[in-house]
Design goal:
Layout lengths: L4 H28 L20 H11 L25 E2 L8 E8 L6 H9 L3 E5 L1 H6 L1 H9 L2 E5 L12 H9 L2 H8 L5 E2 L8 H9 L4 E3 L3 E4 L2 E4 L9 E5 L4 H14 L3 E3 L1 H5 L5
Helix pairs in contact: 6-8
Length: about 280
């Protein structure tokens, strides 16, 4: 037994050395992972935690209904009948729902902050533009489209239509269609005459180029204040605004009145046309 002792000690020493070598190789492999080396062993990770209540809450909040926005009707409303071949004139949508409609004319003053305001509010609105202003800065109006706006016609260059011959009236009423379809990707379905001046020639021209209605208004804004013809808001009222330097304040006063009087804002096309362009 005494003679065999050195051999046993040698065996133990060899085994210890092998253990050290294997451990060093393992450490080298771990150190090389950051540089792209493939590890020889894998680490089993715990299963990911289930979605927290905060995630569910965020999704629910995003899906919540905007209290300022009226739901769209199942079908467009029936407008008062016009004579054959004439588009009807509307200044108040015939409905008993507490809904009003925001419209903005011309396009002369273009404040980029208005895009952010509509993004924050999340409300629908209709822009009645003239091509000159639209072509000066189409990206501004496309930005408003992305935030809930639609584009409709307001004549080629804003004349008093009552002073024009029928052929000239038709040119003014229908002459925006190709330009706006090219710029904004949607055909026009509504028309607003400058100054609210309309007659049978205007209605006939509007009908001939596919406009569902000639749109007037029951209230307007000026200098940050909304004035309604009949005092308080009435179901179906159409509100006239303009692209002016006071548009932000005008929007604020309209939305204030809407909240205080228990109304909501609808998309005009959904109520008069049936499908949003």
């Amino acid at each position: 037994m005494a003679a065999g002792a050195p051999s046993r000690h040698l065996t133990i020493s060899v085994l210890a050395a092998l253990v050290l070598l294997v451990g060093a190789a393992g450490l080298a492999g771990c150190a090389g992972e950051e540089g792209g080396a493939t590890p020889t062993t894998s680490l089993t990770l715990p299963d990911p935690a289930p979605a927290t209540d905060a995630t569910t809450t965020t999704a629910a909040t995003t899906a919540e209904e905007n209290p300022l926005v009226a739901p769209s009707p199942a079908a467009p409303v029936a407008l008062p009948p016009a004579a054959p071949g004439l588009a009807p004139v509307v200044s108040r949508v015939p409905t008993t729902e507490k809904v009003v409609f925001m419209t903005i004319d011309d396009g002369m003053f273009r404040d980029p902050a208005i895009i952010g305001k509509f993004r924050e509010l999340g409300i629908p609105f209709t822009m009645f533009l003239t091509p000159g202003y639209a072509e000066e800065d189409p990206e501004f109006f496309r930005g408003l489209q992305r935030e809930g706006g639609t584009v409709q016609g307001h004549t080629v260059d804003h004349p008093n239509l009552l002073q024009l011959a029928p052929d000239a009236v038709r040119t003014q009423v229908c002459g925006t269609n190709d330009t706006f379809t090219r710029l904004f990707g949607t055909p026009q379905t509504l028309f607003r005459p400058p100054y609210g001046n309309t007659d049978a020639d205007v209605q006939r021209a509007a009908a001939s180029c596919g406009h569902r209605a000639v749109v007037l208004w029951k209230g307007s804004t000026n200098g940050g204040k909304l004035t309604m013809q009949d005092g308080p808001l009435t179901p179906g009222d159409i509100i006239l605004m303009h692209f002016r330097d006071t548009l932000g304040a005008d929007i604020d006063d309209v939305t204030r009145r809407v909240r205080e009087e228990g109304f909501r804002i609808g998309r005009l096309e959904d109520w008069l046309v049936g499908t949003t362009p």
